[in-house]
Automatic annotation (TrEMBL):
Key words of the record: Membrane, Transmembrane, Transmembrane helix
Region: Disordered, residue numbers: 1-30
Ranges that cross the membrane: 39-58, 64-85, 152-170, 176-198
Protein name: Tetratricopeptide repeat protein
Keyword Nucleus assigned: no
InterPro entries: TPR-like_helical_dom_sf (IPR011990)
Organism: Actinacidiphila acidipaludis
């Protein structure tokens, strides 16, 4: 059974939710991602080439030892600026939402002190933190000072190792390249901490205030990232005199997780149209598109009713923040709606592997269970469904998927 074929009768189409976004509403693009990747690849290639062609032969070290020393300098050089910002996060008005350890595909997760910890399959990197702004009134200079201090610490460490000569210099070259690559990529990526050293945040003070998370909003986004819907609902039940964009988007995300697709689509659309921050608009239009897709899957609307609005929302997200689209269930959902089941399996599998948090991964796994069931792989579909339930108990998207996955022992 396809996503648009459900036993529920479609509801009348609310025009405010299903009116497609116009091209004029597309807003700005979160620039820098593709350029940053190109710079990163070029600089990494230059680092390896220089080391292979000149530095390693001159060091008298074997290839394996040289690479080990180089990595021993590169990884701390990359991580020290992040660590300094994290250690000074309270002073500069930031708070951790989740932690990622390693790189590559999803390897597992746990929840510690109410915060999600994601383990990737390749343990090359130490912990990296996703931080939320909690005090926009804190002078931006404090954040700039913390970022500059971390970058300076990495640069000084690299210089000291280079001055030592011998094997230590190899580690120094690794640290030096890490500093240069971090600066080069961050400068051209708006919103990154290092970028704030060189340019003011987009949207000015009002745009920065949109990113503020009060205690309730911070608890809610932590709970949502961890797939804890009950905890998110409890956090958002706290009264708020002046709800901002962070609260509105968290409420829309929770409404979507709980199956209220119309409220989720309407709330996300409101944030999208009112926000000045490009990254906030990207998150809002993603929730809007997800709500439209889930509404079709649930039989709330037909594909004819919601399809044009869904296509417009996905097009806007692809323009603003294409990576946010790739790590969601939306590409697999669109492939399924267009009858490309096998493509949908591949897209869902890839998105589940690179999902940033537990709730996102649970949504993708639910869609993956549906498309696997449609492809005739019942065993894999049931495994995906079990994983989704474990990651985000009570997620409505998982309950929808369960309707299409045959129980174990049935054909």
């Amino acid at each position: 059974m396809s996503m648009s074929q459900t036993p529920d009768a479609p509801s009348p189409a609310p025009s405010d939710v299903l009116t497609p976004l116009s091209p004029a509403e597309g807003g700005g693009r979160l620039r820098g991602g593709n350029a940053a990747r190109r710079v990163l690849v070029l600089m990494f290639a230059a680092a390896v080439t220089s080391g292979t062609a000149g530095l390693r032969p001159g060091s008298g070290l074997s290839g394996g030892l040289w690479l080990a020393l180089y990595a021993a300098g590169f990884l701390p050089g990359f991580w020290l600026p992040l660590l300094v910002v994290r250690l000074s996060s309270r002073r500069v008005g930031l708070a951790p939402v989740l932690t990622t350890v390693g790189v590559g595909h999803w390897g597992g997760s746990t929840v510690r002190h109410g915060r999600l910890v994601v383990f990737r399959q390749v343990p090359l990197l130490p912990p990296v933190w996703l931080l939320a702004l909690t005090e926009p009134a804190v002078p931006l200079g404090r954040l700039r000072a913390a970022t500059a201090a971390g970058s300076l610490l990495s640069a000084v460490s690299a210089a000291a190792l280079l001055a030592c000569g011998g094997p230590a210099a190899v580690a120094g070259w690794g640290a030096a390249w890490a500093v240069m690559m971090t600066l080069a990529t961050s400068i051209i990526m708006p919103g990154s901490f290092v970028a704030m050293l060189f340019r003011p945040p987009s949207g000015g003070a009002a745009g920065l205030a949109e990113l503020r998370h009060g205690p309730a909003e911070l608890a809610a986004v932590r709970a949502l990232a961890a797939g804890r819907l009950t905890a998110a609902r409890e956090a958002l039940s706290e009264p708020c005199a002046e709800p901002g964009a962070s609260r509105s988007l968290a409420e829309a995300t929770l409404a979507l997780a709980e199956g209220d697709v119309e409220e989720a689509a309407r709330g996300a659309l409101r944030v999208y149209r009112q926000s000045r921050r490009t990254e906030r608009r990207a998150g809002a239009v993603r929730v809007h598109a997800q709500a439209l897709a889930e509404g079709i899957a649930a039989g709330r609307w037909t594909a004819e009713q919601a399809g044009p609005a869904l296509d417009a929302a996905v097009a806007a997200l692809r323009t603003i923040h294409p990576k946010l689209l790739r790590v969601s269930e939306l590409p697999a959902t669109l492939a399924t709606l267009n009858g490309r089941t096998h493509d949908a399996v591949a897209l869902a599998t890839r998105a589940a592997a690179i999902a940033p948090d537990a709730l996102s991964r649970a949504r993708v796994l639910a869609v993956r269970a549906e498309v696997l069931a449609a492809a005739g792989d019942g065993d894999e579909a049931r495994r995906a469904l079990t994983q989704a339930r474990r990651l985000a108990p009570g997620l409505t998207r998982t309950a929808l998927a369960a309707r299409t996955v045959a129980p174990e022992g049935t054909s």
